[in-house]
User: Fold this.
Amino acid sequence: MLVVACIKQVPDTTQVKIDPVTNTLVREGIPFIMNPFDTHALEEALRLKDKYGVRVAAISMGPPNAEMTLRKALSLGADEVVLLSDRAFGGADTLATSMVIAEAVRKLAAKEELALVICGKQTIDGDTAQVGPGIAIRMNLVPLTLVDRIVDLDLKAKKITVSRKLEGRHEIVEAKMPAMLTVVREINKPRYPSVPMRLEAQDMTVTLWDNKVMNLDVNQIGLKGSPTAVRKIFSPEREQGEIVGDGAGDPAGTAKLLVEKLVQKELLAL
Amino acid sequence: MIPNPKVFTIVFAAAILLFIWSCVRRFSLVTIGKPEDRFDNFPARIRDTFVYAFAQKRVLQKAFGLNHFILFWSFMVLLLANGEFVLKGLHHSITFMALPSVIHNPLYFLFDLVSLFALLCVVVAGIRRIVAPPYPEAITADAYFILGMIAGLMIAYFNLHGVEIAIGEVTATMPISAAVGNMFYAGITPEEAHPLIAFWWWLHALIFLLFLNYLPYSKHMHILSSIPNCYFRRFEKANTLPVEAFVKGGKFGVETIDQFTWKDLFDSYSCTECGRCQLVCPASSTGKPLNPRQIIHDLKVNLLTNGPAMKDGGKPTLPLIGDGGEGSITEDQIWSCTSCGACMEVCPVFIEQMPKILQLRRYLVEMKAHFPEELLNLFENMEQRSNPWGIAPTERTKWCSQLNVKPFDNTTEYLLYVGCAGAFDSRNKQVTVALAGILDAAGVSWGILGKEEMCCGDSLRRLGNEFVFDKMAKENVKLWKDRGVKKIITMCPHCFSTLKNDYRQYGFDGEVIHHADLINELLGKGRLKLKKSADMGKVVFHDSCYLGRHNDIYDSPRAVISKATGKAPVEMDRKLGESFCCGAGGGRMWMEEHLGTRINLERVDEALKKNPDTVCVTCPYCMTMFDDGLKDRNADKVVVKDIAEIVAEGLR
Assistant:
């Protein structure tokens, strides 16, 4: 059985600045990391490997230097990694991205029966949370988003039960496999690579699939296959705040004043 | 009168063969360890063997060491006496009596006197163990058995010679034996005397041979091993760890006893269980499971258990890292070490406890990727953003955004290596600003690498993450070489020691100076002139482990405080080489302290006993630990200041 973890290499956003003139991300000299949510996706796949002996493939679409992130996946214990990289894939929105990844997963699943595709809840650069569900719909997998626990997994009966972390509540869902999971951080604590595994990973193969291998219609992938276009990226201006009243001296009066202000700004309805 | 030499020859030969067999069997086990060169520098080794083994310099650093010193030298003298005893037993004619009386008379007098010393020392040691044992577990049957044997040996000696003197067989001046003879054997006939002589002689001979054969199986093995252990001591401080070669298929750290070096293993044989290490250990003294004496004992037991099979290529049966039973060490013990080095500083026979513990960490981190969970973030942050907090490297220059600080270039003399705490920690950023002011006031040519600066990796190395440390060290050394850095100022003793000692292994040979030393130098040369005396009230000084114990810098900070405040700092009870760790070393800064009481509180309480207004530190970790501890103790009026801040007060 095969579990595919989808991981993305993202710029370390704590260090990303937006160019005030061009409104684009300043990526120069910014280190790349594995998307934090995806580290949990990979970890969950690896835990299934430890527990059930499934094979884990990690897959990533991105520029050639994303190989580094896939190597990290190898050092953590992924059995196989595939990098989807081609100029034709570039500039893709979530629709085009999920197209390429879904095709790649299908290709992997041709060799071995697919149990699960696991993605992070979203990436920290795009923040759309759409690629996971996109893959699910294209592959006709059950989409199980925001999973914070795999409650039960029955590989023989091809059934999975998960807990979904929703706002203010949890939902326990049973679904048929193959399924697609997107996971939240609470699902697990990612492992750390041992040195022998790191050294091993240095010499392991990162399989490269470009569009010669994938052979996809160029009108459905990359920039051409993307109906979404980014018009502008900007840091939202924060309005100057104001100190209301004297909280220490007159707490009751200040609270009243604050409520009045909020009502006035239609932020609060009485 | 000597009992039957033929019988004795057989007994003696058997005992000696048994002794040799025991020694070979036990000591040969150290050969399963890895190689390590401790054979260089012959003259210095001989010198130190005299200073530390024979003159017992370190033993005498504690008051009770005098007892050991006297006993040791009594033994040395009695080696001669017992040598004669044995040879005479083998052949009647081999005796000092054959020498002229001007030689043999003083010798016998000396033997007699020294035997009394030995007896008294043993009695004192026995009483001490009951009245005021060095540590509670010191009262062992093994200890009393040994003391009893030594006492028995002396008693037999006095009685033997007492009888001989009583019947006039010995005429040498032996006042104690003579007194014993007078007391118990006055007026006996030679016929009555002979069975008594035979009895005391054989008792003496048998205790001696039993003692000899018991040695290799007891803690008194140190009688055989501690002198060579002093000979094979490490000359430079054990403030660094060996580099590892990261090749595929390699094993990293220490999992099994044979992965230690032969010297590590020999250390375990040299321990006398005096317990001095555990008394100074911050972990042991705050109720944590780590006890350096026990660690060394466990290594010995593990070696004795697993060694014989492993020597023949077999597998160990007793795990080295395990449940903490005798011969195995728990993970909690391994993670409790602050790497403060107090154990090594105090060990009379130069056992290196701390590096062994850190080698075990290496195994856990590198081979098993298994460590306290709070370290995961630290490791990821270090590797990804080259600082412990995971703050964006672009913020490394925030501390000087309001200042005019020059970047380091090839015309600059000193690189100010700000370090992570100095660049990111809000309290320590103030120290950096203070130091910058001092450097400018003294006209020092200095600059920073700013956003390019990377973490030194100290915590990683002490936490056993050698793989990532290795990468960071190489990157740093390359950066400095590329930029022509020759002289580095550090503000953190951890950076200081890492750059100065650890980075030598990576080919960095520039000058590294801690700001305490530099400020002292600037004040001394008159380059830094203070406008006024800084009024900090009563200043208590805390020695940082990595400045003091690990690098022997004790005087500079004290001199600087004296010059800046006009008064010498007040000393804490534990100071200089015996200073007590703040609790943050060895990567403990980044770990929770779940076990026992808090180390920083113990040190803060010690400082508060002196009623200070200011606690002066020289280390950002100490700063944090004292700040936190003083808050916990509601001692809000006491401030913690770095030495640079105190000096900066004098510049205002």
Remarks:
- Chain B has three domains: 5-231, 257-367, 375-649.
- Chain B has a mean pLDDT of 94.
- The longest helix of chain B spans residues 101-131.
